[in-house]
Task: structure prediction
Amino acid sequence: MLTLQKQKQFAELAVVIGVNMQKGQEVIIDSDVACQDFARLIAEQAYAHGAKLVTMLWSDEKISRLSYDYASTETLCDVPQYIIQRNKYFIEHNCCLIKIAAGNPNIFKGVAQDKLGKVSAARSTALKEFHDATMSNLLRWCIVSVPTASWAKTVFPTLSEQKAIDKLWDAIGKTMRLDSDNPTAAWQQHLTTLSARAQRLNELNFDKLHLYASNGTDITVGLARNHTWLAAQEEGADGVSFTANMPTEEVFTAPHCKDINGTVHNALPLVYNGTVIDGFYLTFKDGKVVDFEAKEGYETLKKLLDTDEGSRSLGEIALLGKNSPIAQSGILFYNTLFDENASCHLALGASYPTTFKDGNSLTQQQRNELGGNYSIKHVDFMVGTKDLNIDGIDANGNKTPVFRQGEWVL
Amino acid sequence: MLTLQKQKQFAELAVVIGVNMQKGQEVIIDSDVACQDFARLIAEQAYAHGAKLVTMLWSDEKISRLSYDYASTETLCDVPQYIIQRNKYFIEHNCCLIKIAAGNPNIFKGVAQDKLGKVSAARSTALKEFHDATMSNLLRWCIVSVPTASWAKTVFPTLSEQKAIDKLWDAIGKTMRLDSDNPTAAWQQHLTTLSARAQRLNELNFDKLHLYASNGTDITVGLARNHTWLAAQEEGADGVSFTANMPTEEVFTAPHCKDINGTVHNALPLVYNGTVIDGFYLTFKDGKVVDFEAKEGYETLKKLLDTDEGSRSLGEIALLGKNSPIAQSGILFYNTLFDENASCHLALGASYPTTFKDGNSLTQQQRNELGGNYSIKHVDFMVGTKDLNIDGIDANGNKTPVFRQGEWVL
Result:
């Protein structure tokens, strides 16, 4: 269990390092009602650091589940105009967005995949403008997580509810570097290390990466032209830096969506739309998934791949070593924010405009011509096994070992 | 403590007797995050009874308090357009609105009255269309209450938090007739009794009521022309009946806003904008407050009276006997929903259009000509002491005893 003092430090990190809120800014906190105590700590920190206004965007996954059980697909697909208006307001007012991601990984278990897929696609389409704004950092955003009972019990099923919650708090506290005397300074140091790594990859300017491991993964991922490697810290459209994911261990860039060939197997389960997808592989040809299989969650994976044209290609490749604190914890969090930081990963769907040089000044069409992928989805899945090897291949075909046995060798 | 089974019956009452939701309707549940468990029970009952969709309107009074502590008056007065759009949607979609009222009566204690008053007035003005829609039953609505820790501790300050919550649940359960074997049938019987009482008052067709008691109350309240007495059950604009307040014990109608003369003293504290107003009197001349005093909350009362022209006159007079179950409980709930049902009361501010014959087909101007009051406020305050006497006076000046010693004698 984290002390209230540590929880306050955590909330402050989200405001100061996460969205890097500037005095006089409006802050949106997107939280399940189950996380109300921590949401209030963030609100208080935001105000204490000079927020103009904090607006809560409450949700309740249990009510969402009820709506899937009772309301029609048609009703759920219909996104009221006032939601779109609200999102416009957030963009126009240059709000910061802090999301607390703490969902029960199995909340939608048993809901028809067809219904989940249709509703998810319809909402993504209706909320496209806001999604695009986030993807291109028009507003600065940050995701953090705190334990809820249902999530903690999924992670630690053999413990009592309270013990599971306490243990998950401890684990999250470590990944958030709250065991440091000065968490803010520890984060600044960490961000510097990650930036240096991205810098080195940019200097090497690889054309492709070849990933291979004993589980059958053998895939060559071409990188988009004019791609740039980013680490934790990104730049908002207003030039202010921020850290979108906390914790974060990765450096990442944009694949070339027409130059991906081979097969990749997942290394950890993927939780998508409240459903677990596991034991799956994807085979790519010229950038598109041409074959796939899944031992668990096949239908969900299929719906995801069938969302639109771009959901069959990749929008992100992210690298991190098996010795990262999250990987070392050995905990499967069933939460992308953590699990993606335990393992190298790829993302089905859209690439981030910021992973191109001057990406936000390019049109979507221009980024697409460079190999950038577009989709209404962006879904990470983990591929970094403990024996993953990666070679960087430059424009002349020269190979440089980047990863050996799951860890950096650059 | 109410069993889960009883809580479910309670939730069902709100859906079936309260808003009288019709199959295929949309339901809005307006709840503090502290009441999430009960809000979910209502959502489930609404869906089980055929709701098309349940939309949650979450609030958090602790975040609201933070916003008053940190955000500027100007910022808080600014109601974003998307909120107004959202309310329009609720009206246009003929939604039912169920509100869970469970606020900490002291949540805004210490906030400058000037700030509270300005913000409250600005928001009421911005949300006028929705307020008017509710007042004229354009959408069917219902208010219920469940215990929260802070509210329960205010009601029972000497008990432990858990015991206070349990005791408040028990008290609410009794007022909701949940101790009956068939709460729905008990409510239907109760509604019939109240309707008969309203019917009798309509037959007598009084011109004025004279209220007097030993605390100094001595006031003559003229009734609006074409007024009609209503009881718990009202009719929505779509002709479907509903019960706005649960519990409810009152019969009520519209005073004539230019024909109120004399002085009235409060019988119970009034909680307004999170502030307690007590030990107050109001002196009226020709329908307007011309003098007032308060031992506690004077500034808050002053702000309320100064809101607009109509906030200095009355919009409602409601009668109920001292033997009503809530009055008998002897509990001061610090919550208008209950306390107004323990005592005869008056309301500063707007009259309900429905308290006029064919009121919803009249314009505001027409109702005003009949003596109806208009304001952006409608705030009940309790005047029913145990020795309150009321005489009905007809157009010829004939007197009929209506109340003696705080109880009906009609």
User: Anything to note?
Assistant: The interface with chain B takes residues 33-34, 36, 39-40, 43-44, 47-48, 51-54, 56, 58, 60, 62-63, 66-67, 69-72, 75-76, 80-82, 85-86, 88-89 of chain A (CB under 8 Å). Chain A has 14 helices and 19 strands.
